[in-house]
Amino acid sequence: MVIFFKWVIIVLGIFCQAQAYQNPLRIVADDRKLLQYPFEGHAKGPSAEILQLLLEEAELEGEIEFMPWSRVYKTALTRPNTLIMTIIRTPARENKFQWITKVSDTVYSFTSKIASVYDYADTLTIAKKRVTAVVRGSSGYNYLIRKGFSEEENLYLVGSVETAIKLLNNNKIDFVFDTPAVFINYYAQKGLNSDDFVKHHFIQETRKSGYIALSNNSDINLLEKLRKSQKIIEKKAEYKQLIKFRPLISESTR
């Protein structure tokens, strides 16, 4: 009987190693200019730097694959040994991933052109009567669906926030639902100040944190390495500095 159990343990060990080999570490992310983005063949941004700290401490290697968010999410949801970034931690997603380390804080807003005359006293009610662009499959999209929005009535789904901003600038839509930081970056790249072009109304209940997370059913040794690394890097001054990079935009912003 003892010999039998030893063989079971050996076989399980071999099986786990085989599974890990079949599913090497993969890292997926969307292009999010203030967090992570590709530049000259490399990943840049504070979230990418936090990832590098995490991997180095865990003695792991991997390159970020950039792709549209819907594909990022589906890949991490279905493939073991996949790191996803930056993903908003919500109650609906809590049991779908292993949450490794926080990389950002964020808040969503309905953003319109500066010249719009919308009264923000009851933004959700007004927005339901207008057209709002939102990135397909994003946390913002899920929030609006829960609030009764629909593609048939008042949502315009896009693959990237850049597309949404262009639609807003061309008067094709009334609002963009995303984080104000993306507008800061979009206009800054053109040498402009976003406050001269758009105004925001913050939805306070959307304040969330962004994370690096690992897919469920991943190799337990990989998870343990990442957990151990996370505890170490979160005590480092470099991590604390990166997590404060471009803090939340002030509510006083228009």
From TrEMBL:
* Domain of life from the UniProt record: Bacteria
SUPFAM superfamilies the UniProt entry points to: Periplasmic binding protein-like II (SSF53850)
Stated name of the protein:
ABC-type amino acid transport substrate-binding protein
The species this protein was found in:
Thalassotalea piscium
The taxonomic lineage of its organism, from the top, reads: Bacteria, Pseudomonadati, Pseudomonadota, Gammaproteobacteria, Alteromonadales
